[in-house]
Amino acid sequence: MRPVLVVMAAGMGSRYGGLKQIDPVGPNCESIMDYSIYDAAKTGFGKVVFIIRHEIENEFKSVIGSKYRNIIPVEYAFQEKSSLPLGYSCSEERKKPWGTGHAILMVKDIVKEPFAVINADDFYGRKAFELIFNCLSSAKDEEYLNYSMVGFLLKNTLSEHGYVSRGVCRCDASEYLENVVEVMHIEQDNGGAKYLDENGRYSKLTGNEIVSMNMWGFTPSIFARLEKMFIEFLERNINDVKSEFYIPSVVDSLIKNGEAKVKVLNSPERWFGITYKEDKPNVVLAVRGLIEKGFYPEKLFS
User: Fold this and answer.
1) Cα(6)–Cα(72) distance, rounded to whole angstroms?
2) Inside any domain, residue 299
3) What is the pLDDT of residue 144?
4) Strand ranges (DSSP E) for 16-112?
5) What are phi and psi of 227, to 5 degrees?
6) Is 297 inside any structural domain?
7) How many CA atoms lie less than 13 Å away from 136 in the CB half-sphere?
8) Is residue 300 part of a domain?
9) Model confidence at 22, in pLDDT bands (50, 70, 90)?
C-alpha cells in the first residue's frame, strides 16, 4: 500500500490575483504543481488527490488533471465554505473555506493510506518528497500517533515582495516537533526576518528557524482528531468570517495533549513559491537552473 499525495489547491489566490495553481513557470508551460506531481511519481507515491473548489473544477481538470493520466492515478475532493458538519452553517459574508485543517477533512472518505499533504503553489524539491515518502512507507496507524513534517529554514522561504505566513517550529534534540506556531505577516529584514505580532508591533526572527511549509505526513488516524477539533473550533469561531482552522494549530494541540509525535525531516533544498505576482520571475529562473543541472527534463510530460 503506497503512500498517497494530497494536494491542497482550493486557495482563492486573493493576493496573487488569479488561479496561480496552474500558472506556468516551466519552459513548456509547466506549473509549480506539475513539478510536485512529477517528483511524487518519481519518488513512488501511488495516487494524487487534489482538493479544489467546484468553481475551478472544469478549468482545473482540463488544464491540470488531464496531464497526469499516464503518470499517476488522480482523484478529487472539494472544499467549500459550506462544507461543514451537520447543524452548522456560516455567514454569507464569509468568502473563503475554513483553512488547511478543514481541507484535509475533505479527503477522509477517499484516503485510506498513509499520506503526505502539500500546498499546490509551493515548490518543495525532490529531496523533500523522498524524505516524507520514506517516512510514510513504514508508517502505521497506532494508538499513539506518529506523524512527520518536512522542515525548511525560514530565510529560504521568504518573498522579496511582501509578507508571508509560516508555521514556526521548535524541535527537541531528537528532531521531534515540540510545538509549531502559525506566525502571520513575516517579512525579510536585513538578512533575517521580522513579524507583526498581535499587538501590532514588529518582533525579530533570525531567519534560521525551522518552518513548516505544509508538507505533512499523516496516517488516516488524523481524520477523527480533525473532526473533533474542527467542531470545537466552530463552536468558538463560527461567526468570525476570517477565522481559519490551520494544520499547524491541530498538530500543536495533539503534541501538547500527548497524543502524537511528529518527526521533523529537515530538507537541505531551497523552497520556491509564488505568493505575489512579482515572485514569478525568480521561480522561473530557479526552475531553469534546476533543468540545466539535470534535475528535471526540458519537458516534463509528453
Assistant:
1) 13
2) no
3) 56
4) 47-52, 74-78
5) -60, -45
6) no
7) 30
8) no
9) low
